[in-house]
């Protein structure tokens, strides 16, 4: 599974509506409003790169109010939960 993070700038008067429309796109698993340089961050999970190429320019960029996107593909995931899960394998009785 490929994970991509899409940093999205929106028109101020369309932020809430754009966020919901993006969240409803197939392949988008989460959308966060945030402070900082971008208005929204969308998380995409897809089985192949071609699907991400369809979702971002083909759907997200066409949402009314989306001004700009910047897509980042994740290579590897690190988390405390992943480490704890790996070390607890086989400990259940």
TrEMBL record:
InterPro entries: Dimeric_a/b-barrel, Tscrpt_reg_AsnC/Lrp_C. Residues 6-76 form the Transcription regulator AsnC/Lrp ligand binding domain. It comes from Actinopolyspora righensis. This is AsnC family protein. Pfam families: AsnC_trans_reg (PF01037).
